[in-house]
Design brief:
- About 1% of the residues have low confidence.
- The strands form 2 sheets. Strands 3-5-4 form a 3-stranded antiparallel beta sheet. A two-stranded parallel sheet has the order 1-2.
- Helix 6 crosses helix 7, helix 8 crosses helix 12 and helix 15 runs antiparallel to helix 16.
- With 597 residues, the protein is mainly alpha-helical.
- The chain is 53% helix and 3% strand.
């Protein structure tokens, strides 16, 4: 296959003509080429008629080649189908960060154009200042626009403002080269459209006003050693935002950069005018700057008159500082306005103070409101216990028999009937999970989803793709294979631990509620002391029960290995991507074993 990028470069005398194209096709060579639509239009008959005769004569050779091909027009913007595939990709925890940036910032430019032009523009911006015949003033102009964007300014930037601020970025060593580049030339260089997409500064609807190409802002802001923003630029940002619409984002940027005085200057006029968001942020800044200040008055106003989100944020702050009653009051105020997350947080406070009945009531309200973590809390697997006198084991072995006490000193093993029932339930769950998998595919699980298996996993897993879910399904089969081979099921990773918890719950429910089915499954197997003792199984088949912390609303964040409590308890990585990492103290499973389902 022959691929010709920018085909117009080859449609010149001595280049690709009809004869050469025919020869390539005779040799069964596939010829593919790309060409920008505006350039393609230059070869149309209408365009040729309006050209100089000599130019038209040269272009006509290329026109004859183009008449032999079947063009495929690709739109600048991705189709809705393509955007749907992008959204599905970004729902995966291992998504490509470059695509995520492009999806957020491409604006009027297509995602492909953003990705293609961005690195090229960045490379030229970073290198031009070091080149002998570079554009130091133009690069300084672009840097000023980038830093204003980093301060929180998103509205068009007047060329005059950018030119004034560009001097902040010029050193004495640039003086000799500045003589060869006037301010007008610097602006032309910075705004010149390149690669058919955009310049480093992008035109706006406002005359003589510009904004930086978003890719450059992201690249500079995310650099390991991001450059400091000069004081003059911060002052210009506040002046530019004095209309009020951008004081809040500028203030928040100033806070992130540690410029608390500047942040207070931005938030104060908005808070005085009754802006609840600014009141909250101003209280936070004043709390950092002057702990003795009456900053709490701003929070009190927000709590009483603000939105549920602001009351929730204030409640979290009270929690951090150990003011539990104040936190509970804020959460209850927000919960009264229907905020489901705050209902869960209120339940957490009750649970921390051993008020379990009250915590349960709050979790129920949060779950009914659609909070996924509260919903998952009620899915935690446990052991079903029969009513006193209805134990199934009493019907399968004679309690009056004197059992050999020497047997009690041997290592514990699951009885034959226990193994059979557990194996049956692993198989039943696997079949159900397989049916769910075909229906779910890559779709995320929502709070109103119903399912036997995947919807009962911790909420942190609900966005995982089909291939992740299939590996979870395989954990059921792997555990069942252990039993088939005559061994107790031995979980080798977090996935298998949770799969075994579900199987024990299902098996214990079966022995409580379906004695006839249990009898059918265990026909021919002798009754033994310890049949269906699922509590003992739960104690002895696991190294620990840490994976169940994922259901506890109090333990949010514990799944990350960097979490201090995680490290103190030695839990390890319980994030979905870490579920399949095998424990270091067990024999690994055969990595080439494939899938039963």
């Amino acid at each position: 296959m022959l691929w010709l990028d920018d085909l117009d470069r080859f449609l010149l005398p001595g280049g690709l003509d009809q004869g050469m194209l025919s020869a390539l096709l005779e040799q069964r060579v596939v010829v593919m080429a790309t060409m920008r639509s505006e350039v393609y239009g230059n070869y149309s008959e209408r365009a040729l008629r309006g050209m100089d005769a000599d130019v038209a004569s040269v272009r006509r050779l290329g026109s004859r080649v183009l008449n032999l091909i079947e063009p495929l027009v690709l739109d600048r913007q991705w189709s809705e189908t393509e955007m749907g595939r992008l959204r599905a990709h970004l729902a995966n925890p291992n998504y490509d960060s470059r695509l995520a940036d492009a999806a957020r910032h491409h604006g009027v430019h297509g995602i492909a154009e953003y990705l293609a032009a961005g690195p090229k523009l960045l490379e030229e911006f970073l290198t031009t200042r070091r080149q002998p015949k570079g554009h130091p003033r133009g690069a300084a102009l672009v840097q000023a626009a980038i830093d204003l964007a980093r301060t929180g300014i998103s509205t068009p930037l007047p060329a005059e403002t950018l030119l004034d601020l560009s001097t902040c970025y010029l050193s004495a060593g640039d003086a000799s080269r500045l003589q060869a580049e006037s301010p007008e030339q610097a602006l032309v260089w910075a705004t010149e459209i390149q690669f058919g997409v955009a310049g480093m500064l992008v035109a706006t609807d406002t005359t003589e006003a510009w904004r930086p190409f978003d890719y450059l802002v992201d690249a500079v802001a995310s650099a390991v050693e991001a450059t400091a923003i000069p004081d003059e630029v911060w002052e210009a940002a506040v002046t530019h935002a004095n209309g009020g619409s951008e004081l809040l984002p500028v203030g928040r940027s100033a806070f992130r950069f540690g410029r608390l005085v500047l942040a207070e200057r931005c938030f104060s006029p908005l808070a005085t005018r009754g802006d609840h968001v600014a009141m909250h942020d101003l209280g936070f800044v004043q709390r950092e700057r002057r702990p003795e200040h009456t900053w709490s008055s701003w929070y009190q106003t927000v709590s009483e008159t603000g939105t549920p989100l602001q009351a929730r944020a204030l409640g979290a702050l009270h929690e951090i500082e150990g003011r539990w009653d104040d936190a509970a009051a804020c959460y209850e105020r927000a919960a009264g306005q229907g905020d489901a997350l705050t209902m869960r947080l209120r339940g957490v406070i009750a649970q921390r103070h051993r008020q379990n009945d009250e915590a349960h009531e709050w979790y129920v309200r949060a779950a009914e409101g659609g909070d996924s973590v509260a919903i998952a809390f009620f899915n935690e697997p446990g052991i079903y216990r029969p009513e006193m006198g209805h134990e199934l084991s009493s019907k399968t072995w004679n309690p009056n028999i004197e059992w050999d006490e020497e047997e009690e000193e041997e290592p514990w093993q699951m009885t034959a009937r226990t193994s059979r029932i557990l194996s049956c339930n692993l198989e039943i769950l696997a079949d159900m999970a397989h049916e769910e998998l075909d229906e779910l595919g890559d779709q995320p699980i929502s709070p109103n989803s119903f399912g036997i298996f995947f919807a009962r996993l911790p909420a942190s897993t609900w966005n995982q793709p089909r291939r992740w879910r299939r590996r979870v399904l395989r954990a059921l089969d792997d555990l069942n294979e252990d039993i088939t081979l005559g061994h107790p099921p031995e979980p080798r990773c977090a996935t298998e631990e949770l799969a075994l918890h579900f199987a024990l719950e299902s098996a214990s429910a079966m022995t409580c509620d379906e004695p006839d089915l249990v009898a059918e499954f265990t026909q021919g197997l002798p009754g033994q002391q310890g049949d269906y003792d699922w509590d003992v199984c739960s104690c002895l088949l696991f190294q620990d029960h840490d994976v169940l912390f994922l259901y506890d609303p109090r333990m949010q964040g514990l799944e990350h290995p960097d979490n201090p409590l995680n490290q103190r308890m030695g839990i390890g990585d319980l994030r979905p991507e870490g579920w399949f990492e095998e424990f270091g103290n067990v024999l690994p499973r055969d990595p080439s074993r494939g899938f039963t389902h």
